Every structure is written in structure tokens, then in C-alpha cells.
User: Fold these one by one.
Assistant:
Number 1:
Amino acid sequence: MSVIAVVGATGTIGSRVVAGLAAQGYEVRAISSNPDAEVEGAEVATADLTDADQALTAIEGADGVYLTPPQAGDDPLATEAAVSIKVINAAARNGVDHVVMHTAVRANLGDTGAGVLDNKTGIERALADSGVGYTILRPAWYLQNLWGARDYLEQGVVSMPWPGDMVWAATDVSDVSASSVAFFDRGHENRAFDLHIPGGITGQQIADAASVALGREVTYHEADVSTRDYVEAFPISDAHKDIYAGLFDYFRSTTYLEDPQPIIDTLGGFEPRGLNQFMQEELFPKT
């Protein structure tokens, strides 16, 4: 396999996938809707992937496709479904060997009540039924979300709308990109893998990890507000705030956790990046 088309190549995860693939010697085609996009290590193909013909052309000649289901526009979930299905169909029509796609932990269940998870159920099914070789990665809440809380952590506090001992699944984005590249090297598995820190994390663990990284105490406080009020200050659209609030409500209703051991075993030696490692290497690195 030599040519990999990357959907979402300018994003947080996609850009890392591009870099990882280029470092492994793949020819990378970065697909972007922005005609002025420049992606280091990749040829850029401009396409509106909500258009089936443009999706078909953008993927033509690719041996593999990396798909980040995009959530953009006034109706992010509708965009996610439309683009993903058109890319999957284009991959099938072009005879692509392997699609690596990331969705989310519990995207396979459906009817969870969390739109950001349930929207991906049909997308996963479409890929599995497409006839294309595939590997699905199911990450969880990203540790990189803590960049939004960095200033508060430096001031000695972190707050979330649930108890400090509540457990939920969390993933470092670098693990998504690293495992994606590893699966392109390995070949399609025709299955899905949960991808998160074994055992999950808690708010108190975030506070403890920040305390170690900063060398001073950080305390956890449960925010006594609704999830929608909690996300109101997030620098995202109202539609995305509604999506996050729905996901956080789901976190509070059940233990959002699955089993990452199969991906660890399959990739041999792969270890998800832990919370303390993220804090000390990325969020608060020693200078």
C-alpha cells in the first residue's frame, strides 16, 4: 500500500496521521475543502465531500483512506453522516483496499441518547457493509480537551459537572494517529477496537496529575450546574454545545468505559498514553 488519502488532514488528529504516514514512507493525499490549505508531508486535493462525485474523484487512485467523520456547519451530525457515507461509497467504487476510520466508544450500540455516539452507529454499519477492508478505532473523550482548562489548572482548580470519583473513558489523540498508521502497516482487521486509557480517568485523577506536573496542589470541585450550562463558555457553536451536553449527560448516566486490551494485544507493545504522561509531556512540560 502506498497512497493514503486522509480526510480531515488539517484537523488535530488528521494532521498527526499525515505526519505519521509520511514518516513511514507513504504517499499522502490530504483532502480538504479549503482550496488554500497547505499540509506538510502531503499533496492537497480540494474537494467538497458532501458531493458524491467530488468524493469519488478525491479518492481515485488511493490504496487506503483515513476517515475522520467531520462535524461541521450548522448541523454537525448531518454533515458527519453525509460526508462519511459518501467517502465510504467512493472508497468502495474506487476499489480501496483499507479504510481506517475513527468513531467513538459505544458508537456500535445505538439508542444511547447521546447524539454524537448514536450518529456514528449507521456510519460504522455502512463501512462494515461496504465490502471494503476496514479497521474502526473507537476513542473516547480526548485528553487534549484539557487544554481548555489549562489556565484553571494553573490557578489550582479543575471543575466538571460530576463527582470527582466518577470514571469515564479518555484517549490521547496521539494514540489515535499512531494506531491508525500501525493498522495501515498491518492491513485491515475488519473489526472495531476500543481505544482509551485502561480503567478510564476521574476528575480527581486530573487534579492529582496536574498537582504532580505543576509541583503544587490542584483541587477538584464538582460544578453544580446542568451540563448545558457547563459547556456554555466553551468556544464552540451552539450546535456543538448541545452535542457536548448530551454526551456529558450520558457520562453521568452510566460508566462510560470499554476494554482497550484487544488493541494493545493486536498491535503488540502498543500502550495508550496515560494521564500523567500527557500532563507532564504536553500540557505542562518542564522547560
Number 2:
Amino acid sequence: DDETPIAETLAVFDELVKAGKIRNLGLSNESSWGVMTFLREAERGVGPRVVSLQNAYNLVNRTFEVNLAEVCDREEVSLLAYSPLAQGYLSGKYDDGALPVGSRKQLFDRLQRYETPGAAEAFKAYNRLAREFGMEPALFANAFVTQQPFVTANIIGATTIAQLELALASADVVWTDEMRKAVDDVHQRVGNPCP
């Protein structure tokens, strides 16, 4: 009952576009219903058409694939995938309960989204899989996101130049059918523990 109607929100964005304050409208953390409602209202002339969606997408949260991938593909809405490393858990640095000094978890302890039942098992499985393919887990996890046909941009995060270089190198990884099958096999076992 306390929600602002999407048509009302979209009308405000229409004013911002007309005033030259924004060029395009993107959503974040939105559902299939929400994206389609924004698009329907725009088609009715209420406001600008949504061009992008920024949602979490990574090896332990593939929920985007369930409905949003089809919505975004058919409606030409770009996915800007965030948290490809699941806030560092898919880098391997927290494996076996490790808590590196200066890490986000050590400094801020705000990673509860990635500390759900079954998450630790999933991280270990994916990080082990990356090493079996001869890659650093962070490179592997970023490459998984980058190679998806529905991902327009992988929003990487890095604290150091070495982390940045590793994240950027993911664009050069040749993602093989063997890697895809291995990842899908793990996904069948562990599902989406961190939606």
C-alpha cells in the first residue's frame, strides 16, 4: 500500500529526460513484473523506455536466468551484472573461513547475503573448479559472467591494480563447452544459495 505507482515514478523520469538531466532510464534490483510494468507504461506514453537493468548475477546467484533473461532479451533491455565475485567469496580469499586483513568482510562485515545455508559449499565447489581449469577463482567467476550472451556489462570491482588486471583479463578467457558443462553440473547440485 505504501508503494509509489510505477506510472508516477516514470512520469518523474520523463520530466528529468525532458529537462536534459538524464539521457536514459535504467533499473536496479528489479523483478520481471517490474521491468514489464515499466515497459508497458512507457509504451502507453507515460515516460521513457527502460534501457538497462542492473541486477546481481554470478555463479551463486543465477536467478536472472529464470525469467529476466527472456524479458531483457525480447525487450532489448541490457543487463549490467553486478557482484560477479559475490562480494569476494568467488575469489577464494574467504575459503575455509579465512578472513584476510583489509578485506571487505574484515573491514565492514556486511556480506550476509553471501553467508546463507549452502553458500560455503557452493563457493568451495566453484573455486575448486576454477583451479581445476588452471585459473584463479576471480578470473573464472568474472569470465563466467562476461561470456554470458545476455550480459551487456560485467560491473567488476577491484581494490588493487592486480585485481583490476585479473578482472579485465576475464574478457580474453575462451569459455569452453567443458567449462559450461562443469559449471552447470555444480549449479545442479548447489542451486542459487545467494539470491
Number 3:
Amino acid sequence: CTNIILDGDTCRGVYIENGTSQEEIRAERTIIATGRRGADWLEKICAAHNIAHQPGTVDIGVRVEVRNEIMEQVNRVLYESKLIGYPKPFKNKVRTFCQNPGGFVSQENYDNNSLAVVNGHSYKNTKSDNTNLAILCSHNFRPPFDEPIPYAKKVGELVNMLADGHILVQRYGDILAGKRTWQEDLTRSNVRPTLPDAVAGDLTAAMPYRTLMNIIKFIEAVDKVVPGFASEETLLYGPEIKFYSNKVKMDEKFNTNIEGLHCLGDSSGWTRGLMMASVMGVLMGRELI
């Protein structure tokens, strides 16, 4: 699909590429459900045709790794805890996400391998000595700025640049001490990185001040609930980024400001994940059919 067919303020269908030729598919109703990967495409369509939308949220943060002993009580009771805070002075929402007891930190690549971001997972039968989890700071923007996804990508690219295209790792104590982490520091640490090719370095040279301060204050708060979480040897990997689409404005019947055009799922900015997108699809089906 290359574009939508407009007749004034009414959508009449879509243009599609079929090999080397372009075809039209006309319909009374058109539903765009391009997923998170198609969010950039939908954003361009909205901008080109004045489809009402607003900047969405983007989460920028780090993946934290500590010894299992630190998280033992939390892991036993909750397995995956959900901790949320609004640390001073900025009071942005900061949250934990994707906790992996005995897990491993991993690298993911986006945009044809041009952007490396950190993630984490657990295996059923293979366990590490560490627990990892994400700490994400939510960023919400107001007009005239409406490009949260490119903004987050730029932050990620800066971190990648310092790590030569890899994931960068730094000890929490080194951040507080105002020094970068060296590879020999990691070899002497009680917390051994589970991502072998992570590059020791300095996250503070690339992460926005507001983001990093929110993360530091949040770690200090978590340490009161989970003693040892703010250890000097706690590892912070970056960048961890969660991209969410700009939010297409729709009424309670899923109508956009373009008649006959509806948006669905993660690309619409209304959902975050398979379950929410599926429920939205069911509701939209009931409404439109």
C-alpha cells in the first residue's frame, strides 16, 4: 500500500503497488492496521492528508542488571514486578518493564541493523547469576514538536556511536562518581555482564540529562524497597527504547476526521501490544460490520 485515495474529506480506498504497476482498491470503509513497524508510514500519511493526530509517548531508558540475590524476594513473590515512580525534580513517569530472573541481556537491531537497542529474556532451563529489567522514562511532547520516534532514535544512535554500533554498559557507581567504566572494571566486578559483547563506556555522554536524572532518582527509590539495587556494581545497559506511534484522533466509533477512514492497533497509537490490538480489532469489527 502506497497511499490512500481521497475525494475531498472522504477516503475512497487505497493505492497499492503490484509489481511494477500501481492499482486502486476502492471501498466504502478503509482500515489502516500497519502495526508498530508501519507507524512511520502512517505518520507520513497523516501529515500529507491532514489526518488529525497528536504526538505519542516514547520511552527511553536502560536495562539494569543485578545479582539474583538482590532480587530474590521480589522474584519469588512476583517473578516480574511492576514498579512505577514519578521522581523529582521532573516528575516524569518512570517504570520497570520486562523483568527476567536468572535471565540474559540481549541486543536487538532495528532499521536494517542501523540501530542497536538492548533487551532481555529468560530461558526455561538455562539460568544466569543475574536478574535484568528495563527502567524506562516516558517522554511526552507538545506542539510544535511532533517527532518523538526520530527523537528517540537520535538518542539511540548517539549511544551506539560511543559503543561502535554495540550496546554500551556502565556501572551505576561510576555514573555517580563521574567516570566512565573500563573493561577491566567489569572483569573485577561481582556482577558479570550476561551480554558478552557489550562495550564498557559512559552513558552520560549520550543520554539526555532529564532522562538520566529520572533513572538515577528512580534507582535510589527502588533501593529502599529492594536493598542493594543501587549498588555501585549494578550494571546499566543502553539504549533501551520503546517506540510508540503518534496517536490518531478518533471518536468512540473509531472515526477519524476523514470520512470512511479508520485506524487500528499499534500503528494508531491507541494500543501497545498484541492483546490490546486484538481487543481493539474486535471492538472495531462490532462497530463497523
Number 4:
Amino acid sequence: YFYDVRDKILTIKVEAWTDGVCGQFIAENYPNVTFKFKEHQVFLHYNKEGHFKHGESTNLEDKDKLFFYTINLRKERSARYKLLAALETTDLRDQCLSLSGSRHSIHSIKDSIRNELITEDSYHPDELKDVEWFDGLPKKSFYRRTYCELACETLGNKDGDDTFWPTEKTMKPIMMKHPFLLLAPMHHLKNLRGLGFKTFSGIIDESYDEMPKIEDRIKKIIDNLYAIKKDPVNLWNATIEIREHNHLVLGDLLERDKNSSVSFQDLL
């Protein structure tokens, strides 16, 4: 029975959600599979009419910190713990804004987060009335006050993993037209470029994207923060064109998903 089912599967043209380590296994066993980028749920969330159509306007005069990070600590996300532990050994703590902590119930604090976003981040109440997933919202005040974001993606918790699955952690700085450093699986930046985005090579040392070991990527990312610290205004000014380009590309992807004949829910 198993082989009968497997033979039928082998005759079907399958579009897989991702490639990377898991994709290698699939490709070796199911040759008819073709890999295609599929959107994270963040695309649906940002696609709601009237939500986040433009990046946050920022002035250099508003910036009082080098970078920020928002990291939700979960035991199965070991890379996040390694990143925070490495940052604790540096003298960069005074240069950053941060939100990190244990996994929490979003519903239990939904009203307080909503009120904070309205009062501190200038969201309009109508923008937030249907929002259930606040982790996906850019914290506007953090973007106004910093020169770059340090984001830690969901995947990439094992050395050598190159699975590509960008989430809101990648999309928020792009949406907000902000420079970013990403702790993610190998080749995450390379795959973003494959979607039409530009990254910051030549301005930031992005060799970390090619490093199999998590600790090596973290070290190179921290080295980058120290380099940026010497002249953060140069980073900001040198990346304007890239950030504008990426915002347009993201908008095109959102529209493509919005106008797709097959809804994201149906794909699930």
C-alpha cells in the first residue's frame, strides 16, 4: 500500500514551500518536486486594506541608539539564546533598545499592547481594530530612534541549515525602510536577493550569510555592529536607495499575493 501511494505521489507535480536541508531530502526522494517561494502568514496580515502601506518617516535628529532587537525567547530557538548571550559579553548594551523575554500569551496582554502602540507609536485605532497578532507589528518608536535593526529569524537553529522561510522578522525592517542585520539560516540574504530584494553588501560585511556555524555568524554580526558604530550616519545615508528599492519589491509581493487566484488560506 505504501509503495502504491508513493508511486502516485511521484506522478504529481508538487510545488514545495521551501528548500534547504529538508528540501534536499525531498528532492532526492521525490524528483518531481519543484521549489517555489511561499509567503509566511505575515503577508496575509500586512495585506489587510489600509495596513502599513508605507515606511515610517524618520529623521536623523530622532536617533539616539545604534540598533534595536525584539526577540521572543523560546526553548526550541537556541540561536536566539546564543545571540543574546554573545551581546551580553559586549559593551553594546548602552547602544541598543531591546525587547526580549519568555513566550507569553498574546491574548492576555492584547489590550495593553494595543494601547501602547496607539500612544507611543502613533498607530490609529482603526489600524489595530482587527489585529490579533501583535508580534507582527513594527514598533515604530524603535525604528525612529535607531539606525538599524538586529533581527533573529525563526529558523536557523542548527549549524548548516539553509532552509529559506522569511517571516515578519525579515519583513518588518523592509516595510519600515530600515537597515538590518539578520541572524538566520545560511544563504538567507542570498535567497532574498533571488526574490528581487537588495541587501547591504559593500556597506555591511555580509559574509556571515555564507557561514555554516551559528556562532561564527553571530561573531561577524557583532563585528558589523562595532563597524557601524563608528559612523552610523554613513550607514543610514548609504542605504537610502536600497531601502527604497526593497520597500517597492515588498509592495509588489504583497499585491501579487493579494491578487492571487488561490488564497493563502486555501494553500494551507
